[in-house]
What we know:
By secondary structure, the chain is mainly α. It is built from three helices and no strands. The protein has one domain. The protein is elongated. The model has no long low-confidence stretch (mean pLDDT 94).
Amino acid sequence: MLNCKESARLMSQGMDRPLSTRERLGLRFHLLMCSGCRNVRQQMSFIRHACQSWIRRDD
């Protein structure tokens, strides 16, 4: 089973590349049990979208 540090690493990498089936399943299982990592995932997503919006606004 993944720990929180490994889960955060996979969440970050998953925004830049497709995760393997094993990585996706391990992450999904960890997220089912860990509310802290679910919060981190939401925060990462928010920051990513905010940065993308800011970049598009400057074009």
